[in-house]
Amino acid sequence: MIFTTLEDAGKFYRNYAKVAGFSTRVRSTNRKENEIKNQLVTCSREGKWKSKISPTEKTNPTAGLNCPARIYIHTLKDVGAWIISKVLLDHSHPFYPSKAEMLKQHRELSISIRRTIENNEEAGL
After folding, report:
1. Where are the beta strands (DSSP E) in the chain?
2. Among residues 27, 34, 14, 31, which one has the least CA distance to residue 100?
3. How many other CB atoms are there within 10 angstroms of residue 39's CB atom?
4. Where is the FAR1 domain (predicted)?
5. Average pLDDT for the chain
6. Tens digits of residue pLDDT in 21-56
7. Helix (H, G, I), strand (E, B), or coil: what is residue 36?
8. CA-CA distance, 91 to 93, in Å (whole number)?
9. Are 13 and 42 in contact (CB under 8 A)?
10. Which residue numbers in the chain have pLDDT < 70?
11. Residue 71: which domain range?
């Protein structure tokens, strides 16, 4: 797929992730002369972390599950467009599309709640 901007390509994958029931994160961005050349976007459960807390004392499970799902986005220099060049869609964990709105990346405040917060800030509350 070809996109006019890097943001459009990232937004496309984030929207897909929301429908499927997972979240994403930018793992790396390569630059040349201060211009972005390519970007790696992975599932937020990519990688594995060592915890300093013993598993018996933990209240939340570890997020990292070595999920291999990712996309590579790079620029087509001569055209000035962005293309998703490689896609790995296999995940190492289950999806929960019905709970996608609860994932941090997909949470949004409604307009009425946002206005209430702004009004409270203006009033100094």
Report:
1. 2-3, 24-32, 35-43, 70-76, 81-88
2. 14
3. 20
4. 11-96
5. 80
6. 888 888 888 888 888 898 998 888 776 666 677 766
7. strand
8. 6
9. no
10. 47-51, 55-56, 58-65, 96-97, 99-109
11. 2-123
